[in-house]
């Protein structure tokens, strides 16, 4: 019974990691689509988002059924919990893919990118793909050092997200360009959330190795913008508030 449970759990893990490995490829498609938006790219992205969300929900159900059918030992229970978290992260990433698709659908490809934010979005998508691939690899290999390195990668995505926002604030252009820039801001936010989900996956890898739940970063709390000239020491938007214990 115990061997059968462990075998089934390993099979679910293999299926889940294989499906999640398609997400970095989708991010590569997004990197191209934000530079050259098209209706076809948006439709394809919607289809991939729905397929990933459906698969993640199926895995979630399979894991719950597996839990009801067996009594796992402590190590198997940790893996079971971690896989449930990964399935949920897959569904959340799929949601962000669909939100990006909605923005791409409404972008007029003939409008010039006066804020030059499309290139930053493409780089964000590329980095998010690398980060997600890295997190999945750390989970599969139970590589604690690699998992802990994810947070520094996430910083680069956060910086680009702020760059897109600030470029939009500073944009002096007509309504069409402003609308495009605002849609880019929404896409950047979705890409940042995908990066945060990659961090969550890496945290689950660390949990399996150390048996302790650790937060590499407080992804649920928006990070403050850069400090600006004139901000008083210890105050202003550039100062990160202390995390609650």
Could you name the key traits of this structure?
0% strand, disordered C terminus, mainly alpha, Methane Monooxygenase Hydroxylase, Chain G, domain 1, 245 residues
Condensed summary:
With 245 residues, the protein is mainly alpha-helical.
What are the SSEs and their pairings?
Layout: H1 2-20, H2 22-35, H3 39-69, H4 74-106, H5 118-141, H6 144-148, H7 150-169, H8 175-210
Describe this structure in words.
The protein is mainly alpha-helical. It has one domain: Methane Monooxygenase Hydroxylase, Chain G, domain 1 (Up-down Bundle). The chain has 8 helices and no strands. Helix 1 packs antiparallel against helix 3 and helix 5 packs antiparallel against helix 7. The C terminus is likely disordered.
Total count of helical runs of at least 4 residues:
8
- The global form is elongated
Proportion of strand residues: under 5%
Biggest β-sheet, characterized?
Answer: none
Measured distance between first and last alpha carbons: 41 Å
Under CATH, the topology can be stated as Methane Monooxygenase Hydroxylase, Chain G, domain 1
Low-confidence stretches: 218-245
Percentage of residues in helical conformation: over 70%
**Using only CA atoms, what is the Rg?**
20 Å
> What is the level 1 CATH name?
Mainly Alpha
Mean pLDDT: 87
- The class by helix and strand makeup works out as mainly alpha
The CATH H-level homologous superfamily: Phosphate transport system protein phou homolog 2, domain 2
Total E-strand runs = 0
CATH architecture: Up-down Bundle
Total domains, how many? 1
What letter string, H or E per element, gives the SSE order? HHHHHHHH
């Amino acid at each position: 019974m115990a061997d059968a449970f462990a075998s089934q759990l390993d099979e679910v893990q293999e299926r889940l990691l294989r499906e999640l490995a398609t997400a970095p490829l989708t991010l590569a498609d997004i990197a191209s689509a934000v530079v050259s938006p098209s209706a076809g790219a948006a439709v394809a992205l919607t289809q991939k988002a729905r397929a990933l969300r459906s698969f993640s929900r199926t895995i979630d159900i399979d894991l719950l059924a597996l839990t009801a059918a067996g009594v796992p030992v402590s190590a198997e229970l940790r893996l079971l919990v971690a896989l449930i978290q990964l399935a949920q992260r897959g569904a959340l990433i799929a949601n962000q893919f669909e939100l990006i698709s909605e923005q791409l659908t409404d972008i007029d490809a003939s409008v010039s990118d006066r804020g030059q934010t499309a290139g930053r979005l493409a780089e964000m998508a590329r980095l998010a793909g690398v980060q997600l691939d890295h997190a999945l690899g750390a989970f599969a290999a139970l590589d604690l050092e690699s998992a802990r390195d994810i947070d520094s990668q996430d910083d680069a995505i956060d910086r680009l997200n702020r760059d897109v926002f600030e470029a939009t604030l500073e944009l002096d252009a007509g309504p069409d360009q402003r609308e495009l820039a605002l849609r880019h801001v929404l896409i950047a936010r979705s890409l940042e959330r995908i990066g945060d989900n990659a961090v969550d996956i890496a945290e689950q890898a660390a949990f399996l190795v150390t048996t302790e739940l650790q937060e590499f970063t407080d992804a649920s709390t928006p990070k403050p913008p850069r400090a600006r000239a004139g901000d008083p020491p210890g105050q202003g938007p550039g100062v990160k508030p202390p995390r609650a214990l």
